[in-house]
Amino acid sequence: MSDATLHKPATPARFRSATEESPAARWALIAVAVGGLALLVGAPLVIVFAEALVRGWGAAVASLSSRDAASAIRLTLLITAIAVPLNAVFGIAAAWFITKFDFRGKAFLITLIDLPFSISPVVAGLCIVLLFGANSALGGWLVASGYPIVFAVPGIVLATVFVTFPFVRAN
Questions:
Q1: Fewer Cβ close by (within 10 Å): the C or N end of the chain?
Q2: Phi, psi of 151 (to 5 degrees)
Q3: Domain count, the chain
């Protein structure tokens, strides 16, 4: 055998699509996925609006204009106005620090930032109550000093920032 036959170039591989399904099968799978997503997202929205409007538009508008609803809307807007800038500042700073520098404890810091993904918001709220509640040492001192945390705006902001902080971290 000569060297020319030993080093014969292999025939180029045939290029193929990522899937072997027909276009009709691909479109059917996409339709099933989009339909399932629409059902998971759309069905709860339809049910919420149907239940809210069961007594008619007039009752829904009247309930939104009640004093309690206005207070809830104001509280939501206040918490949002506080939590979003806090998350933006600390999230951008944490992302910059994590991506720009290598340091001991970097993995631990990332784990702390991602902690709300693995802890239920109910458990996080319980931890806030146990730590800052009026029956705890720290919470009792804060309440006596005139700075209540639990069932007040600071506690709501703390819980909101804790639960939403992982969403602003870039990685």
A1: N
A2: 60, 30
A3: 2
